[in-house]
Records
---
Amino acid sequence: MKRTWTIIGVKDVPGSFKWYQSLLGLPETAPAHDYFGQILDTDGTVLLCLHQGGAHDHPSLASADRAEPGNGLLLFFRVDNFEVSLQNARTLVAQFEEEPNLNPATTTMEFSLRDPDGYYVTISALF
């Protein structure tokens, strides 16, 4: 099995780390570094990597000041705990980008919101 590690540039790795763990109903842990962390599923699978923008010489992570965060990127998570993620999301943001609804293409419930850096995040029920 091969897996993709999606890495996004963020302003505050520890803060974003906590935000994503809360949204996905994961146990709270600290990132490995103040400039990089991996959001892990309970089985150790990497779900998302957070990298401080401008911390290293990565061309596409130079600085949030040089590009609009999330432009051209949709973070789409399929979760087996949809209701938990929905409840958690309501405590993280004042407004959803898309209220919970049935997606006719996937025939699953989903909702969308923005993370602290402006990335568009969709949560979809696994079943």
---
Amino acid sequence: MSEGAMTGTGTAATAAALTATLGLAAACWVVAVRQMSGMDMGVATRLGSFAFFAAVWVSMMAAMMLPGAAPAVLRRAQAGGGARAVPLFVGSYLAIWALVGAAVYALYRPHGSLAAGVAVITAGAYEFTPLKRHFRRRCLQSLRSGLEFGLCCVGSSIGLMVVLVAVSVMSVTWMCVITVLVLAQKLLPAKAAVDVPLALAIVGLGVLILVAPSLVPGLAPPM
């Protein structure tokens, strides 16, 4: 096979991998929004049965995380195996987030603004830690395994996911907000100019929840 043909094949595989990844994310947005309809009760949200929550959570994670994971998926496709390597990479990546969902289900309880505020402040404090910076940098590197990438992604994004769970785990609005922040951290370089303002904003949100919860959209059950 000529060099030009090999380049063309690689380009086609890359395009197929990107299309499949973003297409799956888009489809999961539709599924997640439908599943979450009527479930949002702010801090008083209940998760329902484990089977129901697992289906919602996996859909949410695919919708929220795959757009930011697209560069890693492309790097994996280009490293070897082409588009055929993508399903295993994406599947194992989402499997890590599914395990996080199982932990959320085991630990989560409907709660009040005090618990939500403390959780959000803790999540903001985590953003300042060396551990967070380590995982954030690792997410921007080439990782051959979806499991490895998933673990790094969890380490990088767990603070943001705590914010979602603490404020309203079934809120489409907060899901959109956290998705934008996750995507920014996946695509932007790990620099203090990017990360410190976000960490301060999260801590500020936690303080606001404690002192004036009525000012935080979606925190209280809709009347």
